[in-house]
Amino acid sequence: MRSVFANRQVSAGLAVVVLFTAVALFAPGLAPQSPATQNLSEDLQPPRSEHLFGQDKLGRDLLSRVIYGARVSLLVGVTVAGLSAAIGLVIGGIAGYAGGRIDTLLMRVIDILLAFPGILLAIGLSAVLGPSLRNVLLALCAIGWTGYARLVRAEVLSWREREFVNAAVALGAAPLRVLGRHIVPQLLTPLVVQITFGMAAAIVAEASLSFLGLGVQPPTPSWGAMINEGRSFLLVAPHVALFPGLAITLTVLGFTLLGDGLRDVLDVRGSDQ
User: Fold this and answer.
1) Model confidence pTM above 0.85
2) Greatest alpha-carbon span in the chain
3) What's the burial of 230, exposed, middle or buried (CB within 10 Å: 0-12/13-18/19+)?
4) Structural domains of the chain, ranges and CATH numbers in brackets
5) pLDDT, position 123
6) What is the DSSP code string of 196-249?
7) In angstroms, rounded to a whole number, what is the distance separating the alpha carbons of residues 123 and 134?
């Protein structure tokens, strides 16, 4: 743990992640106003002492909306990365340990899904299911597990030939016991690193879907939707799109720095996926 926190990338990334997590958790106490309160007589006002981030086209306080928008982004990042990792762990573990036709079948399904750009599949699923936070989570989870499954499969193929695994099999351990007791604990380190990158990717994907109108619907604040609202006023009120864009950039940067630092400190090998 000392070596982990001594790494500058880990420390910087963790500080950013903790900051935005605290902002999301304590949003009601930190936001100066309700994110839905409108004041049409003060639309598109620039940043000033009463409104540190300025106001949008409906006169809503941008700082409050950015703070509440952190809740949506982090909820999507944590949920999508967690569910995708769980699904990928199960499918990748079965494919890598069983081998043979089961492995071939599961990997061909994954190859088919990976043949299409992930964001296009998410856009298609969101368009079919309808724009909402729940459907965004379903769409991103439906395509997000493939990378985890390939990572887990590659690691299982490597670990299942080790002596302690062969010894467990020789003693009569069932396949599920071998996987759960002897192989899965060895996968936690690369999986944790992959999850940090997955959170960053999920936040960007949610912002992209919300930017296109396929994500969280108004009046719920979403950083992507806020950027979409502000793009029409870039020349007269650039702050409307600037601050949610900075929030996305800093959050993704934090998760990326955390993942890079953990990968270096924990010496995670790049598996051939």
Assistant:
1) yes
2) 77
3) buried
4) 2-23+53-265 (1.10.3720.10)
5) 86
6) HHHHHHHHHHHHHHHHTTSSSPTTS--HHHHHHHHGGGTTT-THHHHHHHHHHH
7) 14
